[in-house]
Amino acid sequence: METSIKCVKYTLFLFNLLFSLSGLFLIITGGVVQGAYSQYLDFLGDAFFSTPVFLIIVGCIIFFVAFFGCCGAIKENHCMTLTFAILLGVIFLMEIGAGIAAYKLKGQVNDLLYNNMEMGMQNYNQSGYDGVTHTWDGIQHELNCCGTEEYQDWSNVTFSSGSNVPDSCCLSDIVGCGLGVLNLTPSEAAMKIHTEGCLDIFSVKIKSNIGAVGGLGIGIGFFQLCGMIFALYLANTIKKEYETV
């Protein structure tokens, strides 16, 4: 029995070390996603950023819980080990919830982006909407695209005056290169600007990252479920040992 307790105890201790690393990984992942897409806040909205923030919070909680679990395992304290198992169970449910929310958000990406991008185009280069303007210029320049679904989308925007597109659509970084582009034929326009819309390119990029974040949360959650089972077994074994003494 003593050998069995030691085996479980040190296995749980090793699990806690891995938990700490998974917590750090969640914090880094949440921070990277938050930082990488913060410039697209006008398109993505607060719903998208709630998931990486949630991962950062859970990662911080894991650090605290892992320390609690280490103390309980080494000291063979029934109360601390049981509390650790319960906390792991709560974190497991939180991460599964975050993963499900991420996958649910994945199915709403196209509609979310389309509505926000169309709304943003109407405010492009308008007074008081510098953020929207920078967001549109950034995404068009970075993804080599123009407009929401195609470059002609700019024809219905006040900024274009029916004939212009932003310079960020251009193949080359030249001031004023977008002037008069909407008056050209599609083949002529393609020689000056990127004609493909940004919606499809950006949505594929967002969906792949949402899927990765959701999968990460669920994967780590099931890993922690194994730790919870070990902790419950150790807590039960410790309790039985005290009762026989």
Helix count equals 7
Low-confidence stretches: none
Classify the helix fraction into a percent range. Answer: over 70%
Largest sheet: none
* Integer average pLDDT: 79
Q: Write down the overall geometry.
A: rod-shaped
Distance between the termini: 13 Å
Gyration radius, in Å? 26 Å
Structural class: mainly alpha
Beta-strand percent range: under 5%
Give an account of the 3D structure.
It is a single chain. The chain has seven helices and no strands. With 245 residues, the protein is mainly alpha-helical. Helix 2 packs across helix 4 and helix 2 runs parallel beside helix 7. The longest helix is centred in the C-terminal third of the chain and has 46 residues.
Provide a brief overview of the structure.
With 245 residues, the chain is mainly alpha-helical. 73% of the residues lie in helices and 0% in strands.
Helix and strand topology:
Elements lengths: L1 H36 L3 H35 L2 H29 L2 H14 L7 H14 L42 H4 L9 H46 L1
Keywords:
mainly alpha, about 240 residues, single chain
